């Protein structure tokens, strides 16, 4: 059902105004509310790729918790495991206690994810969110190398706490800090200047040049696809070059897989496509599989130089998240994600976007797997397209430095029919 089919008293107000919401949101919640604040609906239940508001309107969810719901809302297998666990009075909050839920998660992660990929990472539970994972990664890199500087990339997004924000390449988000941040040096991301970034020779020359003032950095932090930055896709060979540079220069490579990990681009870790093994990896969002807060920082064993308690936090032992994560890994990754069929589904969206670009102009397409972006030449048109799509029953958000990209992050479990339905709405909205 789309909004057009609804009786007028259920249609709500115009998206983007926030009108039509219960007044408590305006009177009590801070103005800082951002993502999804323009959707004038109060949501209540959700299943698979669908989310329902209090008036009974159903929306196809191509936002999926900003990539936290790779297996959709309330997946029945995960839900059953969670209900069963709670029903048996399983521990919910465990800090760093050894619990059965944590043990089983670790065993499954080793068996299903690490061992088949020959990865020998130590696993740290840095806190509940992606930002916590990034903070731990930055701290560890600096502690392990005894060096201070971090290299980040244009348009990068790594989180909103002081360290993570320091390596976020978005002036608007950085301005939110109000005062200058911890020092980090941005490098141009692949294709940032419109052409191919040939190699990193210039960077090595700067490192060797005593006049450059650049200290050897502790680490480089990179996303293989920049989600918040506007679905900027790095070529695997560029990522490989970067990894080689880091190893040549004894600089740690951190891959931030908070959004692109857990299969978003196809393989479980997005860096698998480039055939590299980063020194440190950050994982969060879809790792619980159920939208529960959970994060991991993975690092090579020799980097495990933390002393007990050196990176603490109350909400690290989210046992229900361990339970759903274990079942999600078994269910979706025992066959290495084959059944999810992510590359083919992504291609379906890519083909539709390419066809749209050829037909109407003014838009182009970028993407990999099931992160797909429709880039508008006129940045004002991307939020407008999202607004029309919302009115017709599709949730999609914008990204990019000027919000010029409609970014699709549907659940990986989405069906072909649902993709077709969503594309129909979005393509129609973009044409308008
Ligand atoms: N890194 C990346 C690549 C992200 O996309 C995000 C969230 N959008 C974060 C870090 C921060 O994660 P969180 O919002 O869970 O703290």
From TrEMBL:
Belongs to the class-III pyridoxal-phosphate-dependent aminotransferase family. The lineage of its organism: Bacteria, Bacillati, Actinomycetota, Actinomycetes, Mycobacteriales. NCBIfam families: dat, ectoine_ectB, PRK09264.1. One of its GO terms (biological process) is ectoine biosynthetic process. Keywords: Aminotransferase, Pyridoxal phosphate, Transferase. Its cofactor is pyridoxal 5'-phosphate. Pathway: Amine and polyamine biosynthesis; ectoine biosynthesis; L-ectoine from L-aspartate 4-semialdehyde: step 1/3. It holds the Pfam family Aminotran_3. The keyword Transferase applies. It comes from Hoyosella rhizosphaerae. This is Diaminobutyrate--2-oxoglutarate transaminase. Its EC number is 2.6.1.76. It comes from the Bacteria.
């Amino acid at each position: 059902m789309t909004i057009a089919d609804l009786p007028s008293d259920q249609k709500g107000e115009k998206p983007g105004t926030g009108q039509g919401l219960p007044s408590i949101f305006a009177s009590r919640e801070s103005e800082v509310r951002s993502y999804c604040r323009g959707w004038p609906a109060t949501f209540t239940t959700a299943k698979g790729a669908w989310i329902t508001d209090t008036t009974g309107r159903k929306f196809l969810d191509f936002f999926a918790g900003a990539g936290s719901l790779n297996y959709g809302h309330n997946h029945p297998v995960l839900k059953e495991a969670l209900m069963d666990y709670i029903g048996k009075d399983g521990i919910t909050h465990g800090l760093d206690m050894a619990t059965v839920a944590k043990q089983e998660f670790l065993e499954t992660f080793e068996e299903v994810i690490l061992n088949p990929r020959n990865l020998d990472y130590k696993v740290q539970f840095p806190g509940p969110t992606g930002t916590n994972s990034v903070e731990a990664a930055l701290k560890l890199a600096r502690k392990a190398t005894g060096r201070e500087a971090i290299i980040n990339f244009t348009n990068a997004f790594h989180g909103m706490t002081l360290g993570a924000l320091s390596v976020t390449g978005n002036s608007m988000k950085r301005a939110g800090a109000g005062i200058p941040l911890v020092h980090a040096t941005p490098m141009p991301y692949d294709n940032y200047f419109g052409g191919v970034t040939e190699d990193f020779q210039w960077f090595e020359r700067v490192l060797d040049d005593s006049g450059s003032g650049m200290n050897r950095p502790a680490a480089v932090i990179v996303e293989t696809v920049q989600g918040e930055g506007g679905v900027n896709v790095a070529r695997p060979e560029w990522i490989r070059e970067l990894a080689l540079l880091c190893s040549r220069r004894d600089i740690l490579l951190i891959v931030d897989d908070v959004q692109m990990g857990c299969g978003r681009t196809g393989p479980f870790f997005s860096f698998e496509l480039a055939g590299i093994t980063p020194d440190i990896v950050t994982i969060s969002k879809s790792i619980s599989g159920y939208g529960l807060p959970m994060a991991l920082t993975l690092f090579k064993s020799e980097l495990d130089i933390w002393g007990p308690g050196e990176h603490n936090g109350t909400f690290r032992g989210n046992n229900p998240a361990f339970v759903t994560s274990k079942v999600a890994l078994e269910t979706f990754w025992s066959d290495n994600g084959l059944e999810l069929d992510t590359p083919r589904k992504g291609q379906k969206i890519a083909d539709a976007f390419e066809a749209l670009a050829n037909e109407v102009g003014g838009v182009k397409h970028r993407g990999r797997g099931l992160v797909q972006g429709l880039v508008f030449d006129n940045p004002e048109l991307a939020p407008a397209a999202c607004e029309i799509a919302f009115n017709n029953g599709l949730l999609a958000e914008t990204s990019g430095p000027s919000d010029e990209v409609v970014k699709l992050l549907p659940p990986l479990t989405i069906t072909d029919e649902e993709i077709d339905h969503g594309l129909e709405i979005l393509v129609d909205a973009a044409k308008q």
